[in-house]
Amino acid sequence: MLNFQTAREITSRLCREKKLSESEFEWKESVSLASLTSFKTGGNATVFYPLTEKAATLSYPAFCKAGLPVFVLGGGTNVIARDEGYGGILFSLAKLKEISVSGNRITAQSGVPVTALASLARKNALAGAEFLYGIPGTVGGAVFMNAGAYDGETKDIVCEARAVLPDGTIQIFAGAACGFGYRNSVFIENRALILSAVFSLQTGNEEKIREKMEDFMARRREKQPLEFPSAGSTFKRCEGYFTAKLIDDLGLKGARVGGAMVSEKHAGFIINYGHATSADIFALIEKVKAAVWEKKKIAIECEVRTIE
Ligand SMILES: Cc1cc2nc3c(=O)[nH]c(=O)nc-3n(C[C@H](O)[C@H](O)[C@H](O)COP(=O)(O)OP(=O)(O)OC[C@H]3O[C@@H](n4cnc5c(N)ncnc54)[C@H](O)[C@@H]3O)c2cc1C
To answer: In the chain, N or C terminus with fewer CB closer than 10 Å?
Structure first.
């Protein structure tokens, strides 16, 4: 509550100083994190929605400089919220959704769903973004996580990302400056708020692009438990092993804690098969990690991030 009051005072001050207007942002109190995350669990949080890029670039560093805990939320598809909720400011770019095409480049704000980006690329006969089709997150989350699937990773098509650092510097991270690695980027370390990204694609054939996207989506439907809430693959790939296979080989498909279960369809997914709490999910993650360590001496790591 104290954090919320401080943050509200900051946005009111920015309005008094005429740097921002009240119409450029929204506050939402006591929002259920279950409604904002694909796992559909978690308590409540106060959410700040900038409605303009200016509101994002002024308020994010102001909250950080005031020492407030801030968690940036994209589509909420790679995060677990705690049952007790989040006491800091949940900073959501979900409402920044501008997207435009110029030649073979697409510029998209962080709140644009990557599936929409892939569809726009297809309509413009631009190839290279097909792998994003079916990943349920946003541009911000995909750049932050270097999301990837099938034959591509975000790093292959992002030529630059525009971000604001906690100290207020607005910076363009071009090419290697994004520090992309497997489910990794420089933004995990520098805590920058990604505002938008530019994607560089190649001229292609719309029908072929569509076929590829449909093939990827069909493979997802066949292999992934899309009918249950989850955050996709719970664990990172580990050196030399398919993590899902390791888990499957240990007979852990169907293992449960409360309402959380290792999917019987895809051992890499922990699903909320009915009324799971976040505590159930955390406990099941630990159980799987411990079993893999005990039997194979491999330390698997969680890909999913905790809102804290
Ligand atoms: C059914 C299903 C299938 C999936 N399949 C895949 C897949 O094939 N490949 C894959 O890579 N992932 C997959 N995922 C996981 C997830 O969709 C991706 O990691 C996605 O990129 C996360 O994006 P998001 O917008 O939901 O980010 P969130 O889950 O909201 O956030 C993830 C992280 O990014 C940070 N973040 C988000 N936006 C910003 C921003 N603007 N600035 C700074 N930090 C930011 C957050 O703080 C958080 O740490 C899947 C998930 C589900 C539920």
So the answer is: N
- 183 as an active site residue: the answer is yes
pTM: 0.97
Gap between the Cα atoms of 66 and 62, Å rounded: 6
Measured CA to CA, the distance from residue 208 to residue 149 in angstroms comes to 18
What lies within 8 Å, CB to CB, of 178 at 6+ separation is: 143, 155, 158, 160, 161, 185, 186, 187
Distance 194 CA to ligand 1 centre (A): 13
Average pLDDT over residues 224-244: 94
pLDDT in tens, 54-81: 999 999 999 999 999 999 999 999 999 9
Contact 60, 91 (CB under 8 A): yes
Residue nearest to atom 10 of ligand 1 (CA): 147
Delineate the domains of the chain, giving CATH numbers in brackets: 2-92 (3.30.43.10), 99-208 (3.30.465.10), 225-307 (3.90.78.10)
What phi, psi does 32 have (nearest 5°)? -70, 125
Ligand 1 centroid–CA 139 distance in Å is 9
Whether residue 230 has pLDDT greater than 80 = yes
Mean pLDDT along residues 156-171: 98
3 touches ligand 1 (CB under 6 Å): no
pLDDT of residue 29: 96
State the distance from the centre of ligand 1 to the C-alpha of 21, rounded, in angstroms. 30
